[in-house]
Specification:
The complex is a heterodimer.
Chain A: E1 4-13, E2 17-27, E3 32-36, H1 43-50, E4 58-63, E5 66-67, H2 72-78, E6 79-82, H3 94-104, H4 109-122, H5 138-150, E7 156-160, H6 168-185, E8 188-193, H7 196-202, E9 205-210, E10 213-218, H8 220-226, E11 230-236, E12 251-256, E13 259-264, H9 267-280, E14 285-291, H10 295-308, H11 316-327
Parallel strand pairs in A: 3-8, 3-9, 6-7, 7-8
Antiparallel strand pairs in A: 1-2, 1-4, 4-5, 9-10, 11-13, 11-14, 12-13
Chain B: H1 2-27, H2 30-34, H3 37-50, H4 63-81, H5 83-92, H6 95-100, H7 106-134, H8 143-171, H9 174-190, H10 203-209, H11 213-227, H12 233-254
The chains are: A alpha/beta, B mainly alpha.
The complex binds adenosine-5'-diphosphate and magnesium ion (MG).
Amino acid sequence: MKAIEVNNLSKLYPPNIRAVDDITFSIDLGEIFGLLGPNGAGKTTTLKAITTLGKPSSGTIKAFDIDIIESPQKARQMFGYVPQAVSADGDLTGYENLLIFAKLFYVNKNEREKRINNALKYMGLSDRSQDLVKHYSGGMMRRLEIAQALVNRPKVLFLDEPSIGLDPSSKRQVWEYIKKLNEEFGMTIVITTHDMLEADELCHRIAIMNSGKIAVIDTPHLLKKSIGGDIVSLSLQESGLKLSIPDELGLLIGNDDDRVLISTDNAEIAIPQIIRHFENNGSVVRSVTVNKLTLDDVFMKYARSSLQSQGTIKDNRSVRRSFARRGR
Amino acid sequence: MSRINEFYNFGYSALSIVEMEVRKIRHDSTELWTRGVQPALWLLLFGEVFNRVRDLSIPGYDYIQFLTPGVLAQSVLFIAIFYGITLVWERDVGLLTKLLSTPSPRSSIVVGKALAAGVRGVFQSLMVFTLAVFMGVNLRHNLLNVAGVFVVIILLAMCFSSFSMCLASMLKTREKMMGIGQMITMPLFFGSNAIYPITLMPPWLQSLSKLNPLTYVVDALRALLLTGDYSTIPEDIAFLSLITLVLVILASFSISRLLE
Ligand SMILES: Nc1ncnc2c1ncn2[C@@H]1O[C@H](COP(=O)(O)OP(=O)(O)O)[C@@H](O)[C@H]1O
Ligand SMILES: [Mg+2]
C-alpha cells in the first residue's frame, strides 16, 4: 500500500490557469518525498489538493487507499499540514496554539496534555511554551507549527516550503528536526521546496515540477547520475594523452595535453583514488578542480526538456559531453 | 450513536474556536476597551443633546433611555460587520488554512467564529450597562432581563458576523471589506429603529426597516430593558434565528473559497 497515490490530478484556476496539469505520482510509506520546482510551478496547489484544502478539477487522490475526495474528514484526521505562510497564532502562547489544535483534532482528553508536552519537548520549545508566539523567532515559529501538526500523530506530515524565509542556522535546525521525525518515527513526510539544497539534504525521492507538470521523479543521487555525475578536472605535470583510467573510478571524457577531465558519480570519494591511480602510473598531479553537479543542473536539464517532451534523456553520453564543455 | 457523536464533535469544535478567541482576549484586551468609546460618545453627546427633544422617544421614556438599547445594538453591529476582516487576515497569515486542515467540520469553525463575535458582544453589553448605570439611565436590569439581552446580542453578533464572513469569502481583501462594511452599516443603522421610532419614518423606509434584522434586535432589547412588554420577543428571536441560520450555512459553504 502506498501512503499517497495521485492519479491524473489537474487543477484549473479561473479564468484559464492550469496550475496543475495531469500529474500522476505516488508516495511510499516512511519516505521523505519532495516536490521541487520554481515559484508558480504548482507545488502548493498540489499539496492543497492532497490535504483536501482545494478541490481538484479532475483526477483522483488516495491516502492509504481511502479516496480523499469522498472522505475529506477521514483524510484530514490522518494528516498534519504546515502551510507555506507562517500560521501559528501570534496572540496565543505556544502551549495554547497546540492546545486548540489538539482539540480541533479531537485528541483524547486523557492524552492531550501528554501529547502537547511531548511535541513541545520534541521540537525543543518546552522552555518557551508559555510565551506569546509573536515573540518567537522565525525558526521557533516553524518548529512550533510542526509541533502543532504532531499533536495529531499524523500518518503523513505535509510541509509547504518548510524553511522559506529562515536564516541559514534555523534552516539547518528545522532540517534536523524533519529528518529526526522521519528516522525516529518512520513518519511519511511530504515537502515542497524551490531550494535545491533543501531537497538534496532532506528527500529520499524528488519530483521535479515545472509549469504544473512533473518532469521526472527519482532519488537525488540517481537524478544527478542520470545527467552525467560530477566532473573532476586534473592538471598534470606532463602530457596525459596516453593515460587511461579503470571504469570504477569514472569515465575519461576529455584529454588535451596536460589536462584530463573525468566524470564520476561522487567526486569526493573518487578524487583520492584517481590521484593515487595517476601517481602509481608515474604522472604527477599538479592541481584538481571539481565541478560538482547540483540538483540545479538536474533541474535545468529536466525542466527544459519537459517543456518539449516528457521522455527522459537516455543518451547519457551526449549529456556528459555537454557537461564536459561546461567543465572547462 | 454516531449522529450524537458528530453533534458532540461539532459543538466541541465550535467551543474550541471560542476558547481560542477568549484566550486571545485574555492576553490582550485593549481592543475590547477601546470598543467602549463609541457607545459612550453616542450616549454622552448625541443622547444628552437629543434628550431635550421629546417626540423622538416612545411615550413614557426619556430619549436617552430609548437610545441606550439602540446604541448597544449599533456598537455590537459594528463589531460583527467587520468580523470578516479577521478572517481575511487569518487567511493571509495561513491560520485559516490550518484551521480548515483539521478534521473539524467547516461549519463548526464558522459557528465558533460567530459565537466568538457573540462573546465580544456580551462584553460590549456589560460596558454599555455600566455606562448606563453611571449616567443614571433607568433600565430594567434584573438577572433574567440581562440574560435575555445576552441571548439577543449573541444572535445579533452571530447574524452579522456570518454575513461578514460571507462577504469576506467574496471580497478577499481587507480594504474591500472596510469599504463595503462602512457602506452597509450606515443604511442598516439609520434604516432601523435604533435612534428613532419606526413610526417617524416615511412609509417606504418603514417597510424596508421591517426586513432589517437590527430592527428586531432593538425591538427585543427595548422590550427587555425598558417596557417589559415581551409580546413581540418570540417573533423577534424567531426572525433573527432564521436569518442567522441561513447566513451561517452560507458562510460555511463559502469559507473554503477564501483558500482558493
Ligand atoms: N487562487 C488562485 N487563483 C488563480 N491562480 C492561482 C491561484 N493560486 C495559484 N495560482 C496560480 O497557479 C500557479 C501555481 O501556483 P502555486 O501552486 O502556488 O505554485 P508554487 O507553490 O509552486 O509556487 C501559479 O501560476 C499561480 O499564479
Ligand atoms: Mg507555494
